[in-house]
Amino acid sequence: MKAWLRAASLAVAALATQGMAFAGAYAYKTLTSQPATGEETSEKRYFHCLETGCGADFDMTTGQMVAALKGNTEGSVPCPKCGKALTQERYMCDGCNTTYEPVGHGGRPDKCPHCGKSLIVARPKR
User: Fold this and answer.
1) Which residues, listed in sequence order, are joined to residue 46 by a DSSP beta bridge?
2) How far apart are CA 126 and CA 119, in angstroms?
3) pTM of the prediction?
4) Buried-most residue among 26, 31, 93, 96 (CB within 10 A)?
5) For 71-120, how does the pLDDT look when each residue is reduced to its tens digit (9 = 90+)?
6) Is 110:119 a contact under the CB 8 Å cutoff?
7) Burial of 77 (C-beta count, 10 Å sphere; 0-12/13-18/19+)
8) Which SS3 state, helix, strand or coil, does residue 58 take?
9) Cα–Cα distance measured from residue 89 to residue 70, given in angstroms and rounded to the nearest whole number
10) For residues 66 and 60, what is the distance between their CA atoms, to the nearest angstrom?
11) CB within 8 Å of 40: residues ≥ 6 apart
């Protein structure tokens, strides 16, 4: 094998090893870190229970949501009314104070399905 090809192969292997080590350290830090404190945990989140016969709407802070999800193998926030973890996070329209369900994978519709208010957030100008 030519010397330059061997050196290039070793350099690629070293970079790949460093990348995997960084990714592993990042994943460990993310998964084992304590939940955020302060303002991030006081943000209000809205939920709707999808259990047949329940249909409860409820809210909780992000901190309460993190606490409710700890040790929960079902992956959803349990409903305070029926106790089932068959809930869906919703968004609140500040025009009519009604929750609406996400579209697609957690996206927001262009308009509130209840009052028709535009939900498009203007991007700040550069």
Assistant:
1) 59, 90
2) 21
3) 0.61
4) 93
5) 777 788 999 999 999 999 999 998 999 999 898 888 889 999 999 999 88
6) yes
7) buried
8) strand
9) 17
10) 10
11) 62
